[in-house]
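Hello,

Following up on my earlier ticket. Below are the two sequence lines again, exactly as submitted.
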Amino acid sequence: MTSNPAGAVPVLELRDIRKEFGSVVALRSGTLSVHGGSIHALVGENGAGKSTLVKIVAGLYQRDGGEFRLDGEDVDFTSTAESKAAGVAVIYQEPTLFPDLSVTENVFMGRQPVNRFGRIDRSAMRAELERLFQRLAVRIDPDRPAEGLSIADQQVIEIAKAVSLDAKLLIMDEPTAALSGVEVDRLFAIARSLRDEGRALVFISHRFDEVFALCDTVTVMRDGAYIATSPIHETSVDAIVRQMVGREVTDLFPKLDARIGPPLLEVEGLTSAGIFHDIDLTVRSGEIVGLAGLVGAGRSEVARAIFGVDGYDSGSVRVTGTSLPKRKPAEAMERGVALVPEDRRRQGLVLESSVARNLTVAIRERLAKAGIITGRSENAAARLWASRLEVKTNALSSLAGTLSGGNQQKVVLGKWLATEPKVLIIDEPTRGIDVGTKAEVHRLLSELAGRGMGILMISSELPEVLGMADRVLVMREGRITAELDRADATSENVMFAATHATGAQS
Amino acid sequence: MTAPTIERSDVTKRLRAVSAVREFGILLALLLVILAATIANPNFLFSADGWRDLLLTPSILVLLAVGQAIVIITRNVDLSVGSVLGLSAYLTGRLFIDLQGIPTLAVFLIVIVFGAVLGLVNGALVAFAKVPSLVITLGTLYAYRGINVLWAGGDRVNASDLPRDFLALGTGQVLFIPILTIIALVVLIVAGWVMKNSRAGREFYAIGSDPDAAELYGLRVTRRLLVAFVLSGALAGLAGVLYAARYGTVSSQAGSGWELDAVGAAVIGGVAIFGGSGTVWGAAIGAGLLLTINRALPILGIPDFWQRAVVGALIIGAIVLDRVLALRQRRKLLEAREDES
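Thanks for your patience. The regenerated structure is below:
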């Protein structure tokens, strides 16, 4: 269907690209070679390094090592402007438009047609846009501001930008995540026509059905490294999933067996229109329930609704048998529910406050005597948790912002454990934490479950889910698509449930 | 869904009308103030002095407001313009005193470049140190004023130190229009044209509309921000020369507090404080309204105390109005989308 003559120079060639952020290696050896007239899928788990690779191509990040060629020539982009000038267009997950400006201006910003006095030729710009929109079979009012456009329309405008740039390489980072079926079809039709013009496209997606429907080649990444590239007709979903997750992990994160007791948290039919639907789940004493799925599947939203940070439309939440009112986080805390959020720097910690204050912030009322908290009682309570969790810090008075990621996570965890919760909801417990600390966090969770706590663990890392959870629930696009026991859960079936609609379509 | 050309939708048409109305409304308010004051005292408009003051008073502030509008449109603010004006005005005086016989044109050029350099300092700190402009320019507001006090001490430039033909600029007229007003108008027309029709102007709007998107888009954000602050500084420099020409006396406190008038003028004129929308024309009309109200209120018999309050009410009213309009626009756009789908 497309021609990839052997020996032709690829439009984009990346070889052994390396990128580090401080001590964290985001990309060990990113390799990708994309030819003109081809749609190349780039797949991998969250954190496999896809987005980092894209940002290097876009000129947003500079690589620390490796080779980067466009049309066979070595390039070294230090800004997005340079990569754009070289014919690279990137469509990010979140469209990046200027809300106050018109659709037309958004497409042509920075390279509007001008006359010899430098005056923007609006009628030429407008005519050009109409040609462009006709070609893409799009009907969006060119004069309206970009504000209020649907994600689908915004994405179309991003594509129009890329096409008008005459980009030879178009990278789309999960463009379909927010689109409906019809909109996906429209996007694919445009992508195919761009391919037929000889452009090179890179398509990042977690939806394998789309990858197989659209792409001709697929490259798999894992843990910041290149794994394999194969023509699409020579591979299968199973093979790709194996390449994506393939590692021996089950003994890395052992959860000790604990006596499973009565249900502590029961959620029934929880629904919030457009976000999640019919969520049923139960967490028992001594149990760790893993909530797996892709980023954006609605897991964190469910957690926030259970805890009462966000509201929901229907359904019920019960804690130890009695129902919990919605939108009342204080009540949830009182009843023994704790939520350790995903974004600990923004939602979990007061970075400018001391470790001691952060550790005790959730139990301030209990510490206060006649409304006053003394430094001594604060420090005593904090010392207890800091030592139990082995927080490595010079002093309880050091600022939380100065701790490493792993220690920050421990402080957040300690803050909630100080409230002595019965149910712990923990969102991405080990994101951005080094391997050693990861194991410590896992050991701690296992120990807490052993003491009878019920834990709902949201995690995008398959090995963590498989190693830690007694039961695995898999979410996809706001619904629970699978419930697997520890014995039955494998990388393959979890990944499959996370990426495939099962039975009834939503 | 098949028509080949794309018509402007009803919503878009209505929005265009609304944004035109915004500036027209301020102009109307200005005219009403003039009308009311003229009815109370016909000399407000129909006397040689009244007419001159009406045009002359806002002219210097218009320059600051235009510069301020450009900076605010990029989602920044320049609080140092009052201090830059003061320092520039004093420099103007020193140049005439220390370099006897220096051509007036040379003074203009030197002081404008001087203002631009002060603006460059602001811009560089904002663009490279990545510190919010509110903090940076608050710092330079005091720093520049401090330099001014250090330099001038208790000294002041007096009208007698300045050449007669230079002072004539400050009060002179061409065809019943003060020279200062003509200068302000020329600056306004050029700035308005640039902001509307040039790539640089449109990029100011884009950066203010969403700075992160501008970065991803590949716009040269750093360079544009520098330019915005340099323009604001240069215009404050020009305003400083004209201040010296108009008032003759320049102490170390010249232009104190003018930065707030400049911000106020821009906001009253419909320049969104979050950047991305508004015009320099609106800011200029806002400057006119702000200073004309100040002169009209005593004529209308409103006590001194209330005059400041009226200005405050005007600023808050303008911000609330803009917010309401923005929310309404957003809702209309969302509704339009629901209708389509």
